[in-house]
User: Fold this.
Amino acid sequence: MRIAMAKVMSNMNWTILALLTVTLTAGAQQPAAAPENAQPAPVTQQPASAPQDPQPAAVAQPSPTPAVSGTAQPVIAQPAQAQSTPAQPAQAQTNLVPPTTMDQVVDRVIMREKELIKFLSPRTPIVETYLQNLTQDPQLGPIPRDDRYFLGRMDLSDSIDRSDYLEGKGKDKDKDEGMEKHLLGGITNKFKIQYKPLGFSWMIFADRNDFDRQHYDFHYARREFLGDVRCLVFDLTPKKDAGHGRFLGRIWVEDQDFNIVRLNGTYARPTRNFYYFHMDSWRLNLVPGYWVPAYIYSEEGDFTAGAKNKIAFKAQTRMWGYNLKTAAASDELTNITVDSVKDDTPTAQDASPLAAERQWQQQAEDNVVDRLQRAGLLAPEGDVDKILQTVVNNIEITNNIELPRPVRTRVLTTSPLETFSVGNTIVISRGLIDVLPDEGSLAMVLAHELAHIVLGHNLGSQYAFNDRMLFSDESTYQNFGFKHIPEEEAAADKKAIEMLKASPYAQKLETAGLFIKALQTRAPSLGSLLQPHLGNNIAQNGTMRMAQIGASAPALDWNKLDQIAALPLGGRVKLNPWDDSVEIVKAQPVAITSARDKMPFEVTPFFPRLSRYGTGNAPAATPAPTTTTTAADASATASN
Ligand SMILES: [Zn+2]
Assistant:
């Protein structure tokens, strides 16, 4: 298994090694990690009979911080469940009689888990882990000290393995691996942690190979609702001789088909020098009959006075792109149909030089958008785009900007805060939309990219050549890049501010300015979150994009509870792990009661509202993507 660390740890002093490894279960599949299998290390810690406290840490609501008035959260009707997911294997257990005893329920749970493992085995979802190491701030509590980012594809076939999108990207890979070896064999007079990306995604299944009665005791605890779904709750403890790395914790099982919908706990009996994180793993009912792993929250840390444990971090792992292969296949069919259609362009002439140049740009733009979507890095066109296009449209209209083609907007599925534009398409990351406090700040971010388009700072015409689209999904970041030179960045800032001043957002930029200040304050500890993979850095070495707006904002004051400069991650945009569609979360605002509730740019636990497939609250599939959405369409649909 390759391990790529998103960031080279240059200073060993602070590095902590806690090898989160994938133990026995993994050992069988991963020769590299096998030694545990061979030597029956003395089991001294965590006797099987002592189930760990099922981590009530995740109880707090994941803080969709109060929507500031005028936030970009237009109420948009959920699209009907019009387009269901591509043909799924029929549900296996439809003709089974309902279990009548708890023993029969457990048998059913085991059977369903094995069926899920089989169902997912041909899939290679994308896995993203974003982790913040924490330090204690006397005023704000635990705040990020530094961060890490991992992005990869997970192969769910025989074993679980992942390949990384970030490998070799501007980093010295050998150095990483050397350091890793060193840490692996290292003697620890300090407590060191090394994060293994796979570790964070390990808890997608309780136990991939041995989830059965021979290895586990199931203790029924109670019934409980998770969202709309009534669940049976079981505590699981590995049997005495079950070996290392067995799941220890609690599972929630929905009471119709007996699929596991949530796992919360850790793995038992780490071998020497190994350490297992605690995880809270959630599944969503995105296809009939199956609950698909979607989110995993991990947290370690003890900030009580005198605590000795030096590990302190919070991490969010998201999975999506389960249906990428299928989507690509149906694309091919569409393309064939399109090819056979007669070209109905009104002009009978060849394109003029300028028209040809524009067509060329559009070809490049379409190629890039299509390729990113196939790599699982771009959400299909949907309702969030309409909201973004409305904001862009508001700026365009008030500035009398008329472009030969309408500006399109699309959402990157990833967390790092970045935007870029290619041709007339503005791309903004899910993570950036999440943390923006209001519509004015969204307008500020989009205005910068719109300025690039208006000024003709066109990048990416080389992608009109189709050979440049032929690369593996994992190497997308090596093959694509949309970074402007500093002069164009400065010119875009200048033009953007000019346009904002003439726009409906002119009087609403105070919070946008606070956002820039908050970002500037936190930037030194958020290197990975601010590391763009395709566009320009929005906080390059302390120089902020749109700094002028920050300069005119009031002073940043964490103690002012009505001053919300930036939101936590994950509060706004919900990504459907099956079809990659995105929607705006309409969570109830939660009152902020202390400065610690603000959590700007921070990672929080997940607490999705579970619902069954096809019921109102289930994440809906977006309608089939159309090629263009006119600005008029957008403004008609999205309003706030
Ligand atoms: Zn720029």
Observations:
- The chain has 15 helices and 17 strands.
- The pocket of zinc ion is lined by residues 448, 452, 484, 489, 492, 536 (CB under 6 Å).
- The longest helix spans residues 353-374.
- The first strand starts at residue 126 and ends at 137.
